[in-house]
Amino acid sequence: MKTYVATQNPGKLRELKALLARSAIQIVTPRKRFDIEVAEDAGTYAGNAILKAQALAADLRERHVAAAVLADDSGLEVDALGGRPGVLSARYGGAGIDWAARRTALLAELRGVPPYRRTARFVCTLALIEPHGEPILATGEVTGHILESESGAGGFGYDAVFLCPPVGRSFASLGEKEKNAVSHRRRAVDALLAMLAQRG
Questions:
Q1: Would you identify the CATH topology of the domain 2-199?
Q2: Structural contact between residues 50 and 56, judged by C-beta atoms closer than 8 angstroms
Q3: Which residues are CB-contacts of 38 (< 8 A; sequence separation ≥ 6)?
Q4: pTM, rounded to two decimals
Q5: Quick one: which of 153, 154, 172, 174 has its CA closest to 162?
Q6: Interval 20-70: pLDDT, tens
Q7: Active-site annotation, residues
């Protein structure tokens, strides 16, 4: 299935390509980057993923391109912050700041919170829209803890502050294959592929 990904995030695109490499979903990288602005204001991961997928699907139809579209919306939910930043993860800390500043703001807000209260989860929802089809949704999550300082130089987003208990290290400390084996995106992909397999 020839599939375009509705994302401007190179980290997400790289992970999705790796996770789907041996599946029936063939990720296609366009020669020219899609520049589609989508107001991610649905209030849920599923809603935002659908908005992004529908926007790219409409653009492809206008170009007379027959292909499926895959969109990802994900976020970090911190229990001590009542589930924030959640769907607003990419906008946490205010407009115009980079990911390093967002991580710094998160650690500052959690300063003084003891380890046992720093539980958190990464959540990912995927929306797949096949030509002339309705959105297919799949969600995955992984639980962990927020560190008191950054650890690791890999990954992206909040990876450097998220400790993954099964491996005992931050996502940013893991190699690409290690992270892809345990991540929320891995679980969402597995759920999506299982749904597609059930259709036959």
A1: Maf protein (3.90.950)
A2: no
A3: 6, 51, 52, 55
A4: 0.93
A5: 172
A6: 999 999 998 766 556 677 777 889 999 999 999 999 999 888 888 889 999
A7: 73
